[in-house]
Amino acid sequence: MKDGFIKVAACTPEIQVADVDFNVDKIISQLEKCREESVKVAVFPELCITGYTCQDLFFQNALLDKAMDGVVKIAKTTADSDMLVAVGVPVRANGKLYNCAAVIQDGEVRAFVPKTHLPNYNEFYEARHFAPYRGECAAIDLREYGQLEFIPPMEQTVFVCEEIPELVVGFELCEDLWVADPVSNYLAKAGATLICNLSASDEVIGKDSYRRQLVSNQSARLVAGYIYCSAGDGESTQDMVFSGHNIIAENGSILAESRLFENGIIISEIDFKKLAFERRKISTYPASAEWDYSSKDSGFLDKDNISRERFSLEMGETALTRKFAKTPFIPSNQAERNERCHLILQMQSHGLMKRIAHTHSKTVVIGISGGLDSTLALLVCVMAMDLLKRPHTDIVAVTMPCFGTTKRTRSNAEILCDALGVTFREVDISKAVLQHFEDIGHDYNDHSVVFENGQARERTKVLMNIANQVSGMVVGTGDLSELALGWATYNGDHMSMYGVNASIPKTLVRHIVQYYGDTCTSDTLRDVLYDILDTPVSPELLPTDESGTEMTQKTEDLVGPYELHDFFLYYGIRWGFEPSKVKRLAKYAFEGDYPDEVIDKWLKTFYRRFFSQQFKRSCLPDGAKIGSVTLSPRGDWRMPSDAVAKLWLEDIDK
């Protein structure tokens, strides 16, 4: 449970219709496996103690009595276990029969949660046997079934964890999710962060896809974890078949999913601190303590009919089995990745198109280094001009070689511009920079920050003045990763009139350029893009070797691998994880790639630079938000430039 992770399970046991002893034994067997895996919340299918397909046998007292015996037997086997368990069972109360989830923990039945919406259409006719829940309450006396001392209520309940207040568990049954206004809506408003659905959803063609989307969308809408557990093989096949389609979701993401027609257990870990962070951040998400349950839209689910019970869990570290992508900004699926890259290019180019049209710019001016960022920005400029139906010659691409420029990047810059048909200009800034060093009394052999930044600021001055010459606007090339690290010269490459890459992380820039190269029709353009992709990332501000071919400066040697920094950025900033949690996930995701001490080193570098370089982000040029993370002071990120990083750096060593 460290860092907010709770291990949960959806369990579909083998059953035999109306054979309670057989079913209970299979349930208990799966509970033992869950206990071995340190599961803290386990969910079983709807009416699994008897079987969902008992039909008119539900009218038989013999079956109902035996079902309650089964509940007691299951409860007794959970003694000395803190696992919260939900199993489906028919319950007699108030002179009616209800379809319920029996919620069990530590040897006791804590509550019976009744089903609200009963399907009575097509192949379903639950209203023939069961009464829908309409807010009535009852106490179910189980003492006659095995001397259990606790008399559980039958009512809609959410369970609040004493040790982890972010974990609040609510229960709904099958159709309660499929209706227009799901019960889980009200459970979430009551504070539930985990919805458990005990289901018996039969399988028909296409239903698995719809079910998956339904669960994913509901977990996203509620910003919640969702365990969907369905009946499987063993139910009657008289008129239906059941596939045991189980799903564990978190805020729209599917964490685990069973294969159809394979009874068994799926397990994953849901991050409840992550869910709590997102709910706090979303200003329109209702505060559970302030929600008016008695409003007319709430119906019978008012504040008196959703009770709150507390339960305890033994604290400990949850072993992680779910996957954390090394590159969280990049889809792992090739088709999805290509679709993402295409969409990003469309968003970037449409944003730039609007700015060009609004400013009546006759040209756009861009600095071309032969590196990835300026290449992507140039491709976006070309697409924007195509949208405006203007010639590519309205793009003025300027290469500005100096002391660190290699023959490879200089050549690639020219080949790229020629292949795209843009106006190409070369302005060698060496003499201007040397004159500037002489003017301010800086020794050329002193390769300090003055040596580097003098070149960067000279390049920006050239671009701005050329833009004045050609009635244009300067398009910035810096990316999101550089903004996070402050890896830009203030009032140098940091400044432009519109930044098209401002919310694209470095790892994603590479894939977008790769996608453009893979899909373009020009062999020359494709070849130069591939060579640019193979070129190490470098600002090229320190002198090359005598041949002019070898780089003497590589960015990732100086600030660390961008794949690590993008990982830190995603989990540390987008999701607000503590640095110690970010470190844990990084070591888990990059196991075998980087030693622990290397991850520690660059994580500290990330936080030190992120805090100290905020002043550069506070005055960013305009640039459209593209993904879920952006550092624009006018958008998602507002931070004082003089904030202290001490707390975050200390947490890394915690």
Name the descriptors.
20 strands, 654 residues, seven-stranded mixed sheet, alpha/beta
Q: Which consecutive residue ranges, at least 5 long each, have pLDDT under 50?
A: 291-298
Largest sheet: 7 strands, mixed
Number of strands: 20
SS class? alpha/beta
Q: Tell me the number of helical segments per DSSP (H or I, 4 or more residues long).
A: 20
As a percent range, the share of strand residues is 15-25%
Radius of gyration: 31 Å
Helix content: 25-40%
| Distance from first to last alpha carbon | 17 Å
Strand order of the largest sheet: 13-12-11-10-9-8-15
Task: Average the pLDDT over all residues and give the rounded result.
Answer: 94
Shape: elongated
What is the structure about, briefly put?
This protein has 654 residues and is an alpha/beta fold. It has helices at residues 20-36, 61-77, 175-178, 183-189, 207-222, 272-281, 334-359, 372-387, 407-420, 430-440, 449-469, 480-485, 506-519, 523-534, 555-559, 562-574, 579-589, 596-612, 614-617, 646-652; strands at residues 5-12, 41-43, 84-93, 96-105, 108-114, 138-139, 153-154, 156-161, 168-173, 194-199, 225-230, 247-250, 253-257, 264-271, 306-311, 363-367, 395-399, 423-426, 472-476, 498-499.
Structure description:
- The chain has a 7-stranded mixed β-sheet with strand order 13-12-11-10-9-8-15. Strands 5-4-3-2-1-14 form a 6-stranded mixed β-sheet. Strands 18-17-16-19-20 form a 5-stranded parallel β-sheet, with helices on both faces.
- Residues 291-298 have low confidence and may be disordered.
- 48% of the residues are buried.
- Helix content is 38%, strand content 17%.
- Helix 1 packs parallel to helix 2 (61-77), helix 13 (506-519) runs antiparallel to helix 14 and helix 16 crosses helix 17 (579-589).
- The chain has 20 helices and 20 strands.
- Helix 5 links the parallel strand 10 (194-199) and strand 11.
- By secondary structure, the protein is α/β, with parallel strands linked by helices.
